[in-house]
Design a protein that fits this description.
Helix content is about 45%, strand content about 20%. It is α/β, with parallel strands linked by helices and about 675 residues long. The strands form six sheets. Strands 1, 2, 3, 4, 5, 6 and 7 form a seven-stranded mixed sheet that branches. A six-stranded parallel sheet has the order 10-9-15-16-8-17. A hairpin with a 2-residue loop joins β5 and β6. α12 packs across α17 and α21 crosses α22. It is globular. The mean pLDDT is about 90.
């Protein structure tokens, strides 16, 4: 039996294989590109002589499409191999199958690699069934689920590696699943401007979530720093890997809080060997969907800013998002079936539909079609009759003229007017009477109006979306979840942290989600925090009254609390401290309460920086709701835009005079953004 190779020796073999495979892939891409060029040239030289029925042209187009797709696959393969050149593998499991005497070695990395396509892997993808051994078991009895069933045996050895730029940094044998020293090293490093992938340090409880393929709706309640967003993204990568036939990147949508957070997580899937996926905020989705009804809409951040200044605005907002409000809106829409309609006979060029026939079709034939689209269905029904009797198709102008006769039976089809009528009946102030181009909706009315529209008008279903990821689930209301269920009848991963609710009181959506999505929803709680040092996490937990969080034992500097007589003095201290430590900090943040305060602070800091260290001005950034990137340096922002992000050092600057009902949440969110160092500055 040949001597066992060391990790360094095996690395040399793998790097050599990668170079060989890259040469093959590059040659294949070049040949494919030439083939595509030749096909284009042949087509343009010969298309006039191709057969009249287009068979040859069709065959040429299909061949071209097949070659383009083949080239695309080779490009993705090249990208994966290039990524693997930096760090081809990070773990190894030596596993003795039941009935065998000698172990098999399985190296684990970011993707599969074999000497040739379809061959025995030199490196196994972290999502492959056998890789579960690395994440789920210590040395001893173990098993994993393979396509042919459960395979059992014993792990006799586990190794962990750190490889950078193709060079072995360290290798050691470990008895435990993920060595705590490895995890501490990963967590203790300086923050990146993008979220880290966690394939080297996936914990057992995280792995169970990532590899879950059975549950249609999964809701993850995770404490700040528990890794819930990373786990959700790794789960998407796992599902894409295991269901290539039915699930593609284009079939997945992430509803993220804002563009900066979307940028912060945008690299994860490409790093894991998958194409990036679409993301947008639900507010942007709503705004686009309501453009035919109102010219402008407030977003969640407008509501938060108003609530900071006037906490009473939460009361009406909360009422309009509640189950009771939705129920009354449902009742109102039922009443509209009679109130809106003015039925009458329709005659067109000798063809007649009587009033009683219109009524019968409206209530009996098409009751499942939304109210404001039902007459379109009846008009289409009558047009079919007319075309049959006249033995010809109606022109587009004739169809429009006839359809208009039916649509005029509605007293109004304007959802804005109807929603305003509902508000007036319920004792709320009605919406201002304005033309569409001058209408602006308050945030409290955006989703009730969207709810009404999608129940009254036949809207496009998003059947192309087969998996929806909803982040910051605690910020979604009852009526928003009703809309999500209606708009996206697909599998979902829903995640958030009730302690980071953007309201004056914590909202635990886990209590009502089963009422909307059914009892089969899988609820998972992640109570172990990895992000912050123990000192920072304990400080944050005291602010929020959290007592059930399990902390990963990583210690650091104590939290520094200081009082200042003015915001300017506090910002001077921020700048002084940051300039002293800037060379060892990748990321730092100044977090304030409101947009106005943050903008004012960024202007002050920039002016001071131009005096003290003008060469550092390109390292200072103001992050607002219109920002699109998260960058290295010192970021100035509000607490609500900092959610989901993390920084090496955080300065929280809050006024003691501020009695906002959101202050506790603001300070908690601020504290939990800090990876290593936290300074809480209070203006007295």
């Amino acid at each position: 039996m040949p001597a066992e190779k060391t990790g360094r020796e095996y690395l040399d073999q793998v790097i050599s294989c990668l170079r060989k495979r890259l040469e093959e892939v590059n040659a294949s891409i070049e040949a494919g590109t030439r083939e595509i060029e030749d096909m284009h040239e042949y087509y343009w030289e010969n298309y006039t002589e191709m057969d009249q029925y287009g068979y040859e042209e069709f065959d040429n187009r299909q061949a071209l499409l097949a070659q383009v797709n083949a080239n695309q696959e080779q490009l993705l393969l090249r990208k994966r191999f290039r990524n693997m050149m930096d760090s081809p593998f990070f773990g190894r499991v030596d596993f003795i199958y039941e009935g065998d005497e000698e172990p098999e070695q399985f190296y684990i990395g970011i993707g599969n690699l074999a000497e040739q396509a379809g061959g025995r892997p030199l490196v196994n993808d972290w999502r492959a069934p056998v890789s579960g051994l690395f994440y789920d078991y210590d040395k001893g009895p173990a098993s994993y689920e393979a396509p042919m069933g459960t395979l059992a045996g014993e792990i006799c050895s586990k190794w962990q590696y750190k490889i950078r730029r193709g060079e072995m940094i360290y290798e050691f044998e470990s008895d435990i699943k993920i060595d705590d020293d490895i995890l501490k090293a990963e967590l203790g490093s300086c923050g990146e401007v993008q979220l880290k992938n966690i394939i080297r340090t996936i914990q057992k409880e995280q792995n169970a979530i990532i590899r879950n393929t059975e549950d249609r709706i999964m809701a993850i309640q995770g404490t700040a720093g528990s890794g819930k967003t990373s786990v959700a993204l790794h789960r998407i990568a796992y599902l894409l890997y295991h269901d290539r036939k039915n699930l593609k990147s284009s079939n997945i949508l992430i509803l993220s809080p804002n563009s900066v957070f979307a940028d912060y997580i945008s690299h994860i899937l490409p790093e894991l060997g998958e194409e990036n996926i679409r993301e947008m905020s639900f507010d942007l989705f709503a705004y686009r969907d309501l453009q035919d009804i109102a010219a402008d809409c407030e977003d969640k951040y407008d509501q938060i800013e108003k609530a900071v200044q006037n906490p009473s605005t939460w009361k009406q907002y909360r009422e309009k998002q509640s189950p009771e409000f939705a129920s009354r809106l449902d009742g109102f829409m039922l009443e509209l079936e009679d109130e809106l309609m003015n039925f009458r006979e329709v005659e067109y060029k000798g063809c007649v539909m009587t009033e009683s026939e219109v009524i019968r079709l409206f209530y009996d034939r098409f009751p499942d079609i939304p109210l404001l689209s039902r007459m379109e269905a009846i008009a289409e029904y009558f047009i079919d009759q007319v075309e049959t009797l006249r033995d010809r198709d109606l022109s587009e102008e004739e169809r429009e003229e006839l359809t208009d006769k039916f649509m005029k039976m509605y007293s109004t089809r304007d959802c804005y007017v109807l929603y305003s009528r509902f508000l007036d009946r319920e004792g709320y102030r009605p919406l201002p009477k304005r033309p569409v181009e001058k209408r602006a909706l308050k945030y409290e009315d955006v989703y009730p109006l969207l709810y009404l529209k999608h129940h009254l008008i036949r809207c496009r279903t998003h059947s192309e979306i087969r998996h929806l990821v909803v982040d910051e689930m605690q910020d979604y209301s009852w009526i928003q979840y009703l809309l999500l269920q209606k708009l996206f009848p697909c599998r979902m991963t829903i995640l958030g942290d009730k302690a980071q609710t953007m309201e004056e009181e914590q909202q635990d959506v886990m209590k009502f989600l089963p009422k909307i999505f059914g009892r089969n929803i899988r609820k998972i709680y992640m109570n172990r925090s990895y992000r912050n040092t123990v000192e920072i996490a304990e400080y944050a937990n005291r602010l929020a009254g959290i007592t059930d969080m399990e902390l990963f034992e990583r210690h650091g500097e104590p939290v520094r609390e200081e009082n200042f007589i003015s915001q300017e003095k506090a910002l001077d201290a921020v700048l002084e401290g940051w300039l002293q430590a800037e060379d060892r900090l990748e990321t730092a943040a100044v977090i304030l309460m409101t947009e106005k305060e943050a903008e004012k602070a960024s202007i002050y800091l920039m002016d001071r920086l131009e005096d003290l260290a003008p060469e550092k001005t390109d390292r200072l950034f103001y992050l607002n709701r219109n920002s699109g990137k998260f960058q290295k340096g010192l970021t100035v922002t509000t607490f609500y835009l900092a959610k989901g992000l993390e920084f090496d050092r955080v300065y929280g600057v809050f006024s003691e005079k501020d009695q906002s009902s959101l202050k506790t949440q603001a300070e908690y969110i601020t504290a939990t953004r800090a990876l290593h160092e936290l300074f809480m500055y209070r203006i007295c």
